[in-house]
Amino acid sequence: MRFDVVTLFPEMFSALLESGVSRRAYQDGLYGFQTWNPRAYTQDKHKTVDDRPYGGGPGMVMMYPPLKKTVDAIAEANDEKPHVVYLSPQGVPLTQQKLAALSRKPALTLVCGRYEGIDERFIETCVDEEISVGDFVVSGGELPAMMLMDGLIRLIPGALGHEQSAEQDSFSDGLLDCPHYTRPVEVDGLAVPDVLQEGHHAKIDAWRHEQKLARTKQKRPDLYTAYLARQQKTES
Fold this sequence. Notes:
Elements: E1 2-6, H1 14-17, H2 20-27, E2 32-36, E3 50-51, E4 61-62, H3 64-78, E5 84-93, H4 96-102, E6 107-112, H5 120-126, E7 129-132, H6 142-153, E8 186-187, E9 190-191, H7 194-197, H8 201-219, H9 221-235
Parallel strand pairs: 1-2, 1-6, 5-6, 5-7
Antiparallel strand pairs: 3-4, 8-9
Helix pairs in contact: 3-5, 8-9
Function: Specifically methylates guanosine-37 in various tRNAs.
Subunit structure: Homodimer.
Protein name: tRNA (guanine-N(1)-)-methyltransferase
């Protein structure tokens, strides 16, 4: 998979490339990555990428021409039209199912907005989909883009130490994950459940599924209701 990221702050992505699973996967060549700064595609000496919004109001808006030229440069460099994702509070929610769908694409171009947003004409003509990481606003799209990338990198075969790790994550089957324990077997009067110590894999699987159902029902009743609806639909 390849990521092309349109950003005014490319240095922020060092956090992703220099840490943890995403670092190892990058070093192993499991995904490609390049940042593209719209300031490189401006015409004036100040490298202006934003301007005041028509109609007035606070803040500045990222301009159409530098963004459009940046995306065109990405298309030319890769010899194909990119699938462009704009990280935006107005986008569809980022879910594990959305990550699974995006993971089937060979390349993504992620546009990180700043200021009050970007010129609507760029969204209308160049953006294939808008994605939101939550109902809140942050200073720019870089952190949401890194969240999306990290979620996708985990799905790349070979990125995780255990091939089933991603399959058993929360939300992979529509439920929250089950509780996990490690050594020591008892600490501060709290013990690991007996079923996990017995080595009976069928019982362990059943226990974990029951825990996932109970935890989802308690913490995310919306997901629990949706899960039951899917199960009923499948059985019918």
